[in-house]
Amino acid sequence: MPAKTKNKTKERILANAEALTLKQGFAGTSIDDILKATEITKGAFFYHFKNKAELARALVERYWAKDYQLFEQLSKRADELSDDPLQSMLIFLKLFEEVIEEWSEPPEGCIFASYVYQSQQFNESISEFIADSFIKWKQLYEDRIKQIMKKYPPRIETDAGELAEMIMSIIEGGFILSKSLQDAQLMARSVKQFRRYLQLIFEA
Predict the structure, then answer these.
(1) What's the pLDDT tens digit per position in 176-204?
(2) Are residues 1 and 72 in the same domain?
């Protein structure tokens, strides 16, 4: 099988497995479900993944990579538009809002959240990968906020790590609320309020 075809098949498996997992949970998604959605044979599936556990690991790694790629793209664009740490962060958040505002439907959910609530289905390494990923996310936001605090002393007692946790909670909680309330723009509004909160804390 040519490398290009192999990669396309693997990506189709992952894309369909992610969609099914978000819809019915990982435990509720069988290999047969994935085969049917992807229209491949069991042989083709096991060519790419030894078992369902290996698929689970590949899904979380893929999810992290996609999210990090978006973060990098928005961060790079924000830094190009302003070299001021506060303005760059505000631009980054505005760009993120614009991404969400393009959603016509609420997101199905978050793979990480789905896994966390079904942690008994996975080995310890997957739980550790998810926890490490959240720690990395926190550090990315925290580093930016610390740069802001160096230039703009906050008006109230503020902790960079807690602000980083706040935006992460807004995003992760936004997946649940958006889906539950069938409101595709809920997360965008919440991110906007966080952006305004930063302005209140730091802008003169």
Answers:
(1) 899 899 999 999 999 999 999 999 999 86
(2) no
